[in-house]
Write a structure and sequence with these properties.
The structure is a homodimer.
Chain A lengths: L4 E3 L1 H14 L4 H16 L10 H9 L10 E6 L2 E10 H19 L1 E11 L4 H8 L4 E6 L20 E5 L7 E5 L6 H9 L9 E2 L9 H6 L1 E2 L5 H17 L5 H7 L7 E10 L10 H14 L9 H13 L1 E3 L1 H10 L2
Parallel strand pairs in A: 3-4
Antiparallel strand pairs in A: 1-11, 2-3, 4-10, 5-6, 5-10, 6-7, 8-9
Helix pairs in contact in A: 1-2, 2-4
């Protein structure tokens, strides 16, 4: 195996930005995507780091995504704001929506953000963390393309549909989880196929609906939700929130509409933000009380809080930089020529 | 086995009401609990039907719950309302909170309800359905006593912590799911113990943290969340929403405070309601669009929508009545003397 390539976080950002600019993104679209990619590398979330840049670029080159899109904010109700992504990537639309969402949450107590007409290819924790950094509790919901069978069914219908939730802390980084409604990420199955490995029980069924440990059969069949029918119910809920509620596509519609260029598919994102000082507890009482839960969790051997691994990586990567495989570095250099 | 006792729904309601009145509930507290119990019997949800009345009554007799509590509404923010249950049962507090919650959701687009100082012993779908009946999308979150181990841990910390979600439909009853964050209901394990049966894999660990199929060992150990660490994350989220956020107890605090009289324990409930006509889709567009998802689900053999079994029962029980076991009927008659 050839040697890994080490990059500083500013080199990661510059490389991502330049690739996107070369492929036709505006400065703001490129910067917003590069921010999420750099944050993912910083937190050692490789699956949402530079690895995603070729896909983002492919959707610019194919013309599927508008690289110069300028998101537009619409005030829909006292506690609801919409950002129309105008066919651009989601990160800039989410960034533009954060301030009005936070402002509404603080003035109304709870508020919602509907991001529409955008292309999602990033983790959800960055937009949740942007809100927890402002002292808010936050949810995010995103659908995808059809990969997951409904409960009792055998054909893909739901996306892998992640849901994220974040709780702010006063003297520590926020507790945030960001988890797919599917038992595994689709990329995990693809990695098992590439490496000639079988997949664990419970991840997928083949095209005839039988449980399978063969990644190729799984990719031709359907992924399973986590936790059986309960995970399927959550996947369904996310379709309704990120699709029907806000006037964007359901996963099966995204699949039907998609230009399969290797990049993100179209979809909506729904967020909810809550001000913990407006729900019955003042002066940080809610956050102080929550610390007693976190203490009880950590008092048990073997436990950790969600996000801990990311926060640990974040302590070192600004100094050590991050490493990527040489083949990816070559691909990115080629995109950047 | 002796013969089952058949009761009409009005007899169910009268029997439940009279038992509660005899044990010291006010007319309004008794009626609100009897409504939820009758709705559960109507929908063939035996675990939340008359079976619960002895527990409700025990908490009145022990003095743990105030039978004459009058819930008080506090306006916390333009989009947040609180109902202080004043140490009474949750159903009346939830009923009192529904109108201000719905009104805020319609005027602000999204709104939240914090129910505090109340005792929960009912399913969540009745309060969700009250909101879907008004055309709103709704969530409900409730914690309980410590029964479920955190991810990686072996000791009970979280409650079985149900979460419910409802989506209104124009020409059909709402789609509502109401599911515990634990792999199984605690009562299911107790029923297996009573019947001398082993419990399925994945439900519980024993006191040493080893997976167990022995219901007695499970009850002395800890229940497991559904879907591994993802279900545990949801259980944690529900603790934070129904406890810390609204200034009520966490499950482990409810356990520490509880007078174990066989009735409900103290806790909070957090609800969110969203007006689907204020999130980017007007004139029922969100509901119309969602029907295409429901059609795609039902187009696959073996699927059904959440709540379908309840709605089927609801079609027949007003005519046929419901049946209860003779021992329960005797218990209720004794309470009613």
């Amino acid at each position: 195996m050839s040697e890994m390539v080490t990059l500083s976080l500013s080199e990661v950002h510059e490389l991502a930005t330049n690739c996107l600019l070369k492929c036709g993104a505006s400065g703001e679209q490129a910067r917003a995507v590069a921010d999420t990619v750099t944050n993912a590398e910083r937190d050692d979330c490789k699956s949402h780091g530079l690895f995603r840049i070729p896909g983002f670029c492919a959707s610019l080159s194919s013309g599927k995504v508008s690289g110069d899109a300028v998101p537009v904010v619409h005030d829909l109700a006292p506690a609801v704001v919409q950002v129309d992504g105008n066919n651009g990537f989601a990160p800039l639309a989410l960034e533009v929506g954060a301030e009005p969402l936070a402002s509404k949450a603080k003035s109304q107590g709870i508020a919602a953000l509907a991001v529409t007409n955008s292309y999602h290819f990033s983790a959800l924790w960055p937009e949740v963390e942007r809100l927890t950094d402002l002292g808010l509790v936050a949810f995010a919901f995103v659908s995808a393309k059809s990969f997951v069978a409904p409960s009792g069914g055998i054909k893909p219908l739901y996306g892998t549909n992640p849901m994220a939730f974040g709780w702010p802390r006063q003297n520590a980084p926020a507790v945030i989880f960001d988890q797919a409604a599917s038992a595994s990420a689709r990329g995990e199955i693809q990695l098992h196929e590439r490496d000639g490995k079988t997949i664990p029980d419970g991840w997928a069924i083949d095209a005839s609906g039988k449980p399978t440990n063969d990644p190729t059969a799984a990719l031709a069949g359907a992924q399973l939700p986590f936790g059986g029918h309960k995970g399927a119910a959550i996947a369904m809920m996310i379709e309704l929130l990120a699709g029907s509620l806000i006037g964007d596509v359901l996963s099966f519609e995204a699949t039907a509409n998609d230009k399969p260029d290797g990049g993100p598919s179209s979809g909506g994102e729904f967020m909810i933000a809550i001000d913990p000082s407006r729900c019955g507890q003042q002066n940080g009482g809610a956050l102080t009380h929550a610390e007693s839960l976190f203490s009880e969790i950590l008092a048990q051997d073997g436990t950790r809080l969600p996000s801990t691994r990311r926060y640990e990586a974040r302590l070192t990567t600004p100094d050590t930089g991050v490493t990527i495989v040489p083949s990816l570095y070559t691909t990115l250099q080629n995109l950047n020529e």
